[in-house]
Amino acid sequence: MGVNWLNPDSSSLINAGANFGPTTIGRAEYWRLFASIFLHAGIFHIALNLYALIGFGPMAESALGRWRFVFIFILSGVVGGLSSILANPITTSIGCSGANLGIIGALMLSSWLKRADLSVRLSRPQLLLLAIFLLYSLALGLGSTYIDNGAHLGGFITGILASLLLTDRQALSKAYFFSSAPAKALALTAVVPVLIAIDQKRIENNNDVKCCIEHMDAIALLKEKKYFHGIEKLDAAHSFKPGDASVLADRARALVEIGHFDKALKDINKVIEQHPKDRLAIMNKASIYHKMQKDDLAIAEMDKAIALEPKATGFMAMVNGFKNMFSTTAKQEDSTFYNNRAWFKLASGELESAVDDCNQAIKINRSSSTAYDTRSVAYYLLGKYQLADQDLVAAIRRNSKDGAFYYHRTLTLIALGKADDAKAALAKYRELDYKPEAWEPKVPANIN
């Protein structure tokens, strides 16, 4: 589905099937409770959960029995998802950590009550160490937005209850398991509809949930370029949660599309007041200034955004470097800051400085087609037409669907005296419907 395999965003995870209160409960998409157990937020997340499952899984399966193991794993994952919604209705819950903790809880109880064979039973010191580790993880989760304590607690408690009911001495025989244990298992599953009903009450008249639903609808409308309807939805979301920075940021971008720059600037300033180090928000503010033809202010904002580039050292620098080696998203974001500043410098006539920024953008991300295009415009304005054409060929090779590239190549080919090639580029530009900005050079009227 094209989801980033290192650091996926919430909307991508929700589209892929993550557990999310407004959709799982609000829109009755209960299949997410099962699907989200097997989906993970990137390669590191699944590696961590698989490491835990490999560590405890074989012992738990031997202690509990294969079918009990599968039943407890799935039930703990589902109940963990419902518990996550109960704790925070608008959190995006994904992964098998709740299911894993259900298995660990079941193994701990069967070991504590000596219901498992000695060979697969945890010793008392092991149980104590594991309990301390789980308490530490719980405390760690209180201060982290990435650790879902609701899912972890729900899964762990489910595992304990399931083990209590399904691993008594009689249940260790297959005959007992396939006669009365299914009745106990069925009784355990009754907690699922009960939790669904509680979650439904939890999200009713919840302003956070209402804001989230309106926001999601707005994003869908904005993708279809239905800006006025999208802004209506964003206004509704804002009325439910006036301080939501993501709503304000999206409304600012939508307002720019309909030319309401002053209103957009007010919204993005509110975002920056809440998050003064939000580089993307500062870059969006710079883009608004550019639209208002205040490029000196736009460049100043981009200077601030670039100065906020994280400068990790030591171990974190090594970790970030490893991530960036595989993550195109991180490279694209860093490259975009320099490319945007270069574009604003072109609009204000700072041509040589714009070339320097383009060089930096390309150094960070050599696949950035827009950086080659921006540099080509700088070369064109400097009269270096051959270099401009080389950059445009590189840009089009990387992305042949951007009309800006063909518009700028039309200008360059005219300057190089290649009229026939210019006409072909012009036809392609018109097909892709690029709208040049007011400051950009214009294609001569006699070229058709």
Topology:
Layout: H1 10-16, E1 19-20, H2 21-24, H3 31-38, H4 43-64, H5 66-87, E2 92-93, H6 97-112, H7 124-142, H8 149-166, H9 174-177, H10 181-189, H11 191-203, H12 207-223, H13 227-240, H14 245-257, H15 261-274, H16 279-291, H17 295-307, H18 314-326, H19 328-348, H20 351-364, H21 369-381, H22 385-398, H23 403-415, H24 419-432
Antiparallel strand pairs: 1-2
Helix pairs in contact: 3-5, 4-5, 4-6, 5-6, 5-8, 5-11, 6-8, 8-10, 12-13, 13-14, 14-15, 15-16, 16-17, 17-19, 18-19, 19-20, 19-21, 20-21, 21-22, 21-23, 22-23, 23-24
What does this structure look like?
This protein is an all-alpha fold and 448 residues long. It has 3 domains: 10-203, Rhomboid-like (Rhomboid-like fold, Up-down Bundle); 207-307, Tetratricopeptide repeat domain (Serine Threonine Protein Phosphatase 5, Tetratricopeptide repeat), CATH 1.25.40.10; 314-432, Tetratricopeptide repeat domain (Serine Threonine Protein Phosphatase 5, Tetratricopeptide repeat). The protein has helices spanning 10-16, 21-24, 31-38, 43-64, 66-87, 97-112, 124-142, 149-166, 174-177, 181-189, 191-203, 207-223, 227-240, 245-257, 261-274, 279-291, 295-307, 314-326, 328-348, 351-364, 369-381, 385-398, 403-415, 419-432; strands at 19-20, 92-93. The longest helix has 22 residues, at 43-64. The radius of gyration is 28 Å and the shape is elongated. It starts with 9 loop residues before the first helix and ends in a 16-residue tail after the last helix.
